[in-house]
Design goal:
This protein is mainly α and 368 residues long. Helices cover 70% and strands 0% of the residues. The protein has 11 helices and no strands. Keywords: Membrane, Transmembrane, Transmembrane helix.
Length: 368
Amino acid sequence: MTPHTTAQAAPARTGRAAVLAAFLWSLTAVPIGLWQLLDPEGGPFGHELYEPTFTLPDGVPGWAAPAGLIAAGAVGVLAARARPRLWPLTAVYAVVFGMLVSTMSPIAFAGYVCAFLMPAVIVAAPVLLVRSKVGRIITGAAIAGLFLGLGAVGVVDYPAVGDFLTMLGGRLAEIGTFMAVQVWVVAGGGIWAALTLHLLLQGREGRPTPRWLTPPSAARWGRAASWIAFACALPYGLTRMTWLTPWAWMGGPLGEEIDTATRVWGLLLGFAALGGGVLCLGMTRKWGERWPFWVPVLKGRPVAPMVAIIPATVMAALFTFVAVPFVVMAIRQDGQDLIWAFPFYVWGPALGAATLAYAVRRGVVTPR
């Protein structure tokens, strides 16, 4: 297969994947809607943690929302195969499920998952950054010795850590179904947005490629978008870093109001945000196209485009869609300072633009 053939095949595969995903998502909407219709209290939208961003007027019967979901699934099965001129229909699906039906639960869940993984990242980073194998072994042994010593002197209570992990696992099991459906809602918004983009590009078949979608132009505006996305991670990440000092601040001085466990979680969330911001820059840096030296086995090899595009697209969609529920929540709770601390309304679109530019430069997205 020639490089030209490969470049042509990549967008076609991406388009087929979007169509298939929209079709399968629509199929699952029917049983989920039936579940909620037949069991309003025990259904996924009747869970105690479910806080809808927007509620229906009191006069609307309770069965209307699940019936609407069933209808949306039935229509979506057909809309998944829509022609390019019907892209407004798929765009409506993206907006409704991504911004109006979605809640804050998925972004909260994603944030805590990233924070939970940060200790492993922090421990592994010094080992990976050492170039020689011997140096990595020595660094790894030193880190292991440090943690054993911290446990021996009681600085780290490993039995308590085990109890915490057990408790966390039990809690995740309790809310697993609810969270899965919330993620499914946001995923639907992302899937329909991807299908809309595919239809818009497909509708350009036979037309000349607009200048802004050429690789050189995409490189320029993609670079600006990636730096904007990076900047959006700074307010929250740097604010959390103040928790390393006696002057902890989050929308105002906190003083001694936070205990050690809360402080640690806050710092991990802050590190996760800053790490995500750095990854945004990968859309335009060399290490976004070729694995850097500190990646075992893969170092020096080309990065498969989808390795970067898939997670970046997921996060861009999540940030964009959660912007509306987040702003609504902040206003309801009189927490307007959160609106600037979490600029999802800029971060999501900027990361999405940077990802699109990356996909254009790597030949995954092209107007046809």
